[in-house]
Give the backbone structure.
Amino acid sequence: MTDAQLITLCVAIIMPLSLLLYSNSKITDAKETLRAEMKTLGADMRSDSVQLRSDLTLALLRIENKIDHIAEMVASHGERLDKLENK
């Protein structure tokens, strides 16, 4: 085997292996970056859902208060009408 053939054989083996290792390291970097972004996104979504839940709770409380007030008004008007009808 000549030196040129030996160098060609080494290049034919070493180059694909080194490119494979390089590609694998890039894939690993991409996976780590994606995992970090997913964790950040998950934390953001959890905080947004907590804020949304508190806003929704506040809105429902206001609606309940308005319904209670309307029920009191209806009861008061009902009593007044009953008094007027009995006179």
